[in-house]
Amino acid sequence: MSDLEQHMGELRRRLIYSVLSVALFSGTAFYFSRPAIKFLKQDLSVQFHAMQPFEVFYTQLRLSIFLGLAVATPVILYHALRFAAPGLEKDEYRAARNFLPFSTVLFGAGAVFSYQYVVKTSLNFFQSFSTHASVELAWGLSSVVGYAVRISAYTGIFFQVPIAASILAKAGLLTSAKMKKYRNYFIVAVLVTAAAATPPDIITQLLITGPVILLYQLSIYMVERINS
Fold first, then answer.
1. pLDDT in tens, 94-110
2. How far is CA 52 from CA 28, 48, 60, 65, in A?
3. What's the CA gap between 105 and 109, in Å, rounded?
4. pTM for this prediction
5. Which residues, including other chains, have CB under 8 Å from residue 69's CB and lie 6 or more apart?
């Protein structure tokens, strides 16, 4: 068997393990998706409305896939790292391996932060506009849950900046000088991404971009320590 065939076989095996882990966790999460929706209803103090006959099932499926992906992230990252291991130096592999647990923690922290502060604040903001306009707001189940999931996922990914910067710095591919040079470009990219992920209101975008910019500044400090 050639090296290419072995390489592709290893890739296929790692992908199968990753897909199976997502399927397993998503299937388990589907069982808890109904209580999760009930929790959102109580926590947000809203009355959800299904606009389509299939909307409840679709929302439960969408939520379970998100939860499955979130829980399976450490498994996916582990297999990705094991696949890339032959092409990494020992120091690079060790750095990436050691940062994996922190990556999971930061994703979870970003998602929780997003739900507690970004999602709740923005929904209250929209609710107040409807109230002042004497308009009764119908909370569509799929729209609200989808919005919460989307914002939480984006914020969780944004919170990976310190991990990505640290790994690249350990590999000698990133310096604090480069980060300072491209800081403005990064801020613009975050603003554009936040604008695409959120409704067109400045409050939601600032609630997302503010902490991410602070994390970027923290990443610069971490990269300086690593490079010193």
1. 777 777 888 888 888 88
2. 25, 12, 14, 20
3. 6
4. 0.77
5. 22, 25, 26
